[in-house]
Amino acid sequence: MTEEHAEHILSYGKLTTVWVTLLVLTAATIMVTRVELGVWKVWAALAIASIKSGLVIAFFMHMKYEPRLFRIILFVALFTLAGFIGGTFFDVLYR
Amino acid sequence: MSQETAMAEGGFWRDTGRTGIGAWIFSTDHKRIGLMYLYCVLGFFLVGAFLGLLIRLELMAPGPTIMTAKTYNALFTVHGVVMIFLFIIPGIPASFGNLVLPIQLGARDVAFPRVNLFSWWLYATGAIIVLVSLFTGGGAPDTGWTFYVPFSARTTTNVSLAVFGVFVLGFSSILTGINFITTIHRMRAPGMTWTRIPLFTWSLYATAWVQVLATPIIAITLLLVVTERILGLGLFDPTRGGDPVMYQHMFWIYSHPAVYIMILPGMGVISDIIPVFSRKPIFGYKMIAFSSLAIAAAGSAVWGHHMYTSGMSDTGVLVFSFLTFIVAIPSAIKVFNWVSTMYKGSISLEAPMLFALSFILLFSIGGLSGLILGAAATDIHVHDTHFVVGHFHYVMFGGTGFAFFAAAHYWLPKYFGRRYREKPAIVGWVFMFIGFNILYFTMQVLGMEGMPRRYYDYLPEFARLNFVATVGSWILIAGVIIVVWNLWHGLFKGEAFAGNPWGGATLEWSVATPPPTENFEEDPVVTHGPYDFKGAGVP
Fold this sequence. Notes:
- By secondary structure, chain A is mainly α.
- In chain A, 73% of the residues lie in helices and 0% in strands.
- Chain A is built from three helices and no strands.
- Chain A has helices at 12-34, 40-60, 68-92.
- In chain A, helix 1 packs antiparallel against helix 2.
- Chain B is mostly helical.
- Chain B is 68% helix and 0% strand.
- Chain B has helices spanning 3-9, 22-25, 30-58, 69-105, 113-135, 151-154, 159-186, 199-231, 244-278, 285-299, 314-342, 351-374, 376-382, 386-416, 422-449, 463-493.
- In chain B, helix 4 runs parallel beside helix 7 (159-186), helix 5 packs antiparallel against helix 7 and helix 15 (422-449) runs antiparallel to helix 16 (463-493).
- Chain B starts with a helix and ends in a 46-residue tail after the last helix.
- The A-B interface holds A 1, 69, 76-77, 80, 83-84, 87-88, 90-95 and B 185-188, 209, 212-214, 217, 245-246, 249, 253, 300-301, 303-304, 307, 311-316, 319-320.
């Protein structure tokens, strides 16, 4: 209850770097669709999307600078979502 | 001013800048919001119970009895929607949670009082939308409360508006969950460590997580049903590449954890009442607290057990059946700990305790019949029969419903400064308990014999037991009327209730009766556990 934290202001340079990285990764997503990877195509797209959302959460949403509790809460939410999707695939993949 | 008058008009009842209804519907005081929820959910409970009574009257004898088949379909749908979304989900958390949680933590209010009021407004708006949907458009939905596709995408009844109402109600639930989680993390009084939090508040903490994480899924699912109806996208239509079973997954991903939104707060109520009326500290405090979290976590992973006969893969059936059995472990931990708490206790059988004791029995019957449904091999035989209806009424009504009345008898006198009469409360409880078992145990037997649920008519061999069940519903409703009337009359006109007559050691019993607007004259410093009666100085 006492873990007050100071406002953390990110520099324009850092924000721009993250933004450019996101654009590069978007381009990478498109390029991956043109390479013949078979079933790995989906995993590649999902991996890139995960990195992108990770960057957005960490820097644009400031999660990197928040107290540990908030990061745990975010993890619980993501873990739950993964559980919901994963559980559904016990049906869809084996039908 | 006599002591009696002072109590009924004192505390948070008096301290307000506004007058009339505005002092309530614009108040950010958690106690007033809790009472507004209480009046609403109690009203909807009575409406739902009346609809249930009509359903039983129709089933009293084979063939048409008092209504048409179309009316019957609408009635069981509306009974389900009202009871699930308007009564039991907000039932204990929004009403008693709001009334009790901040005081139990030593806080002056919840973390976001305005958001709390907004939650109530969303609830009221959602409720009005649902009620309007019953009487407009193509009439009351006839899909069952589950709104299963493909029927819900095709029926001409007013499904779109009804599911939109449920969508709005969902946001009320999410905001209440966020508010409670934040309050528990940020607003605890000095000395209120995690292991001094009362178990009712612990159960609300676990519930709030489920509300926040699972409710968005039903929101998006119901919106998809609306888009399916309006735009005909074919999301759930196999002829256009859709998957109707996917709807069931998405629906139950929320609606099964929602069962724990319903039952966990009830378990919390029981965990607070049993030690007080046994004059003994709770047995296994930490295990009960953590089992709430375990139920919330495990309960979020078992939704597939509603779909064993829906065409799900065998692997899915196997996995979900296994996971379902895991939920029984934390549930059993609670039951064993409650019973152990009472062992060698000085038990006093007053109304809250009687409701709490019947909770343990009825919930156990409901839980154990749930194992029959959780095991795929036995579920195949009783799926969609009256056995299922009996089972979930044992858990939902025998569990949460009885816990709701236990909480009402335990806490409401503190907030009203007046109390109900004990004898009618016990008479009402006896009627409820007997009527309940005649009604729902008979349903389970009927289901075992093969009587399907949601059927307007049935074979002659089911006639006798259906008649018995209907008689049970009359006894049950008589008990409900006695209990509600006695509570209502007592809380507004009964004798004065002051101090801490039950002898509770949690913080809500240390404040004035009724509690003042900001709960505490001075910020409390917590020096003892929630069930440490000696530490609290309670005899």
